[in-house]
Each structure stands twice: as C-alpha cells, then as structure tokens.
Specification:
heterodimer, A: mainly alpha, 0% strand, B: 226 residues, mainly alpha
C-alpha cells in the first residue's frame, strides 16, 4: 500500500467516523428536546466536537493524499469538498454555543442547529457530487480496516469530552448554589 | 381558514412596516446593485464568460442581499419588547413563523426582480428567453432562502453577535439549494430549456424546500420559546 492510498483510506475512515458522530449528535439533540435532560446536551456537544476534529484530520489527510498523487493540495475531489462543506456546516454549532450564556436556551438552540444540519448532510453530499463528478471521476470509497480504530478513537475521545462536560456542568451548578447562599 | 388569516395578518404587518420605514429594503437593494457592479471588476464580462458565471453571480447577489432583509425579520421586533408580545399572542408559533416567512419572501423577491433587469443591462445578457421557468426557479430558490433565513433569524435574535451568526449558520445549510438554483439559473439565462441532466437539480431544489419547511415548522415552537 502506497502512502497516498493509505492517506486516502484514512480520509474515508475519518469521514465515516465523523458521519457516525453527526448522527449521534442529532439523536442526542432530539432526545434533549424530548426529555430536557442535560446529559443529552453534553453528549451532543461531545459528539459534534469530536466529529469536527475527525473531519478536520480527514480533510488534512485528503489534501496531503491529493498532493502526493496529483501534485495539488486541493483537487476539488467531490468527497473532499463535501467534507469541507460539512465542516463549515458544523463549526457554527460551537460558535453559537459560545454566544449564548443561559444553559437551557443554549442547549435548545444548539439542538435545533444539529437537527437542521443532519438533514442537510445528505443533500450536501449529493449536490457536491453532482457538481464536481462531472469534471473528474471520483475514486471508489476505500474505507478498509481503518474505520475500526478511527471509530474507537472517536468514541474514546467523545467519552472523555462527555465526562469533562458533565463535571463542568456540576461545578457550574455548585457555583450558582453557592452564589445564592 | 382562521389559520390562514393569522398568517396573513402577521405577513401584512411586516410588509407594511417595511414599506413605511424601508430600512431593510433600501439597504438590501443598494447592496445588491453594489455587488453587481463589483463583480464587473473580477472578470471580463464577455459573452462566453457570462455564459459560465451568470447563475452563480446572481445567486451570490440574492443570498447576500437577502441576508440583510432576513436579519431584520425578527430583530425588528426587539424594541419595546414586541417579540414577547408576538410570542404571547393567541396564534400558533407556526402561523407567526409562516407570516414572517411570507413577508420576507415578498421583500427578497422584490429586490431580486429589480436586480435581474439591472444584471441584464450591465452584463448585456438577454435573460428573458426562458422567463416562466426562470421565475419558477427564482420562487423556489427564494423560498429556500427565506425559510432557512427566517428560522435562524428567530434562533439568533437574542444573541449579541446576531448579524455575524446568521450568515455563518445559513450559508452552509443553504449550499445544496444555492447550487441547484445557480446551475438552473445559468442554464435558463442562456436561453436553454432545463435538460434531462438538470431535472435532478430541480428535484433537489423542490426537495430542499419541502424538507426544510417541514423541519422548520416542527421546530419553530422550540426556537421561539426555548
């Protein structure tokens, strides 16, 4: 396996893991809106953050693969471009969270964005494919065995983030009670 | 019937307020003309070039100018706590949302219909050859723009960074609809009918409108009340 192919399959694996993270985030968001349990809000946040990290790593691997195979950093490959659009779709989720102070308002608004985004991911994938596949044929998807370590890594990171987030929330709650006293 | 009346009341109120103050309409129109002019410096507006870029150019103008109008959609209600009054009004949240949607739809469409002839004159394009189809793409694309713009305008209305957050959130979501509208507009402005290859884009645009109108209506109460 050449390093270019290795990187291409790394890209595919991290994109699939990021897709799983997006689905998990949307499911957690729906559960939050249903139950108003902040555990699901933390879960959605953790999944989205890790998904964005995986996607960024995948885009980087894809760009390097393009540089190795075609000599260009950005080849307007349909899958790579769709991944970038999805990254731009989910990055404002974190910006929106930072912009809202009040916890329940922040969680509800973020959940709405996450649900909108998951409906948009397939549309983006199809549209970008139609737009770019006319110019250059895309290589077949080669997920391979790398999907397994990638998903495990993502799950582990998301679990750590979830624990952090819950601890932060508990601290916030204690601080607020202390202030009230 | 009562529901439609409620939608019409909200929509007419918004259009009336906008026609009296013209605060978003003037800005949006001036902005659209400005971008149309600025684009003439980025490339040589020859016939061949226009054949390639007309749809993309037009929809970038529409999306940017439309955001100015959509930003005001809910922000207009902030002074004097009008938004709280509207939310407390005895109408469903979806009626309030659809009313606001239709008002923005009319306003954005008005700006587009002024920009189109100006575009035709500046860039020497005979854009009327496929007028009925072009108008349909315009209606579908504008509905996508307004339905996403209005729901996110409601979502971001109470945020300090409102003007920044709205385009950040809406443009990536609108990407499939904008791509479809750009492709179809390029074909139609060049006087060609929508070919077999491009029917898929039309379906994409209609599907986008249907899906995101449904998602918006499902989530509108959450967005308004929290």
């Amino acid at each position: 396996m050449t390093s270019g192919l290795m990187l291409a399959s790394l890209f595919d694996a991290s994109v699939w893991a990021a897709l799983a993270a997006a689905v998990a985030a949307a499911a957690a968001s729906i559960l939050f809106l249903r139950t108003r349990n902040f555990f699901y809000d933390s879960l959605a946040l953790a999944a989205t953050e890790i998904g964005l990290v995986l996607l960024a790593a995948g885009i980087l691997a894809g760009a390097i693969a393009g540089r190795l195979s075609a000599g260009l950093w950005w080849t307007w490959d349909a899958r790579l471009t769709a991944a970038l659009v999805c990254w731009l779709l989910y990055a404002p989720y974190l910006m929106l969270r930072n912009a809202i102070e009040e916890p329940s308002r922040r969680a509800a608004s973020a959940a709405v964005v996450s649900i909108f985004a998951i409906f948009d991911v397939p549309a983006i994938a199809v549209a970008v494919y139609w737009w770019l596949a006319r110019r250059a044929p895309t290589p077949p998807i080669a997920v391979g065995w790398m999907i397994l370590p990638m998903t495990l890594l993502g799950t582990a990171l998301a679990w750590i983030r979830l624990r952090q987030e819950q601890r932060r929330r508990a601290q916030d709650a204690e601080r607020r009670t202390a202030q009230e006293i | 019937m009562k529901y439609l009346g409620q939608i019409a009341t909200v929509a007419l109120k918004d259009v009336r307020a906008e026609l009296r103050t013209k605060e978003a309409l003037n800005a949006s129109l001036a902005f659209a003309l400005m971008i149309l002019l600025l684009f003439s410096y980025t490339f040589d507006p020859s016939k061949e070039m226009m054949r390639e870029v007309s749809g993309g150019l037009l929809w970038i103008v529409f999306a940017f100018a439309g955001t100015l109008t959509l930003n005001r959609s809910f922000a207009r209600e902030l002074p004097n706590d009008c938004l709280d009054a509207l939310i407390a009004a005895p109408i469903p949240g979806s009626a309030l949302f659809l009313g606001k949607c239709f008002a923005s739809f009319v306003l954005v469409l008005a700006v587009e219909l002024v920009s189109l002839p100006v575009f035709g004159i500046f860039y020497n394009v005979r854009w009327t050859l496929q007028l009925p189809w072009l108008l349909m793409v315009l209606l579908l694309g504008t509905w996508a723009l307004t339905v996403i713009g209005t729901i996110f305008s409601a979502l971001t209305v109470n945020i300090k960074l409102r003007e920044v957050m709205l385009p950040m959130l809406t443009y990536p979501i609108l990407m499939p609809a904008l791509m479809a509208a750009m492709r179809l507009t390029t074909v139609l402005v060049n006087g060609q009918p929508i070919g077999e290859d491009d029917v898929a884009w039309l379906k994409m645009l209609i599907g986008f409108d249907v899906v995101f109108t449904a998602v918006s209506l499902a989530l509108v109460e959450t967005v308004l009340v929290g």
